[in-house]
Amino acid sequence: MTAAAGAAGAVEAKIAELGLTLPEVVPPIATYQPAVQSGVYVYTSGQLPIVGGKLSLTGKVGAEVTAEEAKELAATCALNALAAVKSVAGDLDRIKRVVKVVGFVASAPDFTAQPGVINGASELLGAVLGDKGVHARSAVGVTVLPLDAPVELEIQVELESA
Q1: Residue 155: alpha-carbon gap to chain centroid
Q2: Which value, in Å, is the radius of gyration of the alpha carbons in the chain?
Q3: For residue 6, what are the contacts with CB-CB under 8 A and spacing of at least 6?
Q4: How many CB atoms lie within 10 A of CB 42?
Q5: Which positions ≥6 away from 4 have C-beta within 8 Å?
């Protein structure tokens, strides 16, 4: 077995070790691709917390959805984003680093803890990828998201050369 073949699957093994499963890529709900590659970068479209074809929860964070629930949903979005990355990169072990994370939180008017919600995604990426998961980030409160999702996430990753 080559060194490259021996290393293949390490990221997915870490996901499994955490008791998680890398999902299938969530099909687009409009006219776009879940992820595109340009050079050594992969950009994901906004990923919703869809599991098994359905949103786990809907509504605004700070109203119908608690901050803790939303933090878990952000982690689900991050897993969906990794699935989208794999769909174009072929192997998550090619990730050199997560460069940027942008998180959107559908927020009740008085909810201001968006960074804590998006920590769910950041913590998952760190747990799965270690230092390669450390990234720049924005956490933005918005009025509404597609399908009344509480959270949406997009990531940009840099890949090792093939």
Answers
A1: 6
A2: 15
A3: none
A4: 24
A5: none
Q: Where are the beta strands (DSSP E) in the chain?
A: 35-38, 41-44, 50-51, 54-55, 95-106, 136-142, 151-159
Q: Which residues pair with 107 in a beta bridge?
A: 61
Cα 159 vs. chain centroid, distance in angstroms? 16
DSSP strand pairing (41-44 vs 35-38): antiparallel
Per the confidence metrics, is the pTM higher than 0.90? yes
Query: CA-CA distance, 28 to 54, in Å (whole number)?
Result: 13
CB 78 within 8 Å of CB 38: no
Give the end-to-end CA distance of the chain in Å, rounded to a whole number: 18
Per-residue tens of pLDDT for the chain, all 162 residues: 334 444 449 999 999 999 999 999 999 989 999 999 999 999 999 999 999 999 989 999 999 999 999 999 999 999 999 999 999 999 999 999 999 999 999 999 999 999 999 999 999 999 999 999 999 999 999 999 999 999 999 999 999 987
pLDDT digits (tens, 9 = 90+) for 13-37: 999 999 999 999 999 989 999 999 9
- Percent of the chain's residues with pLDDT above 90: 92
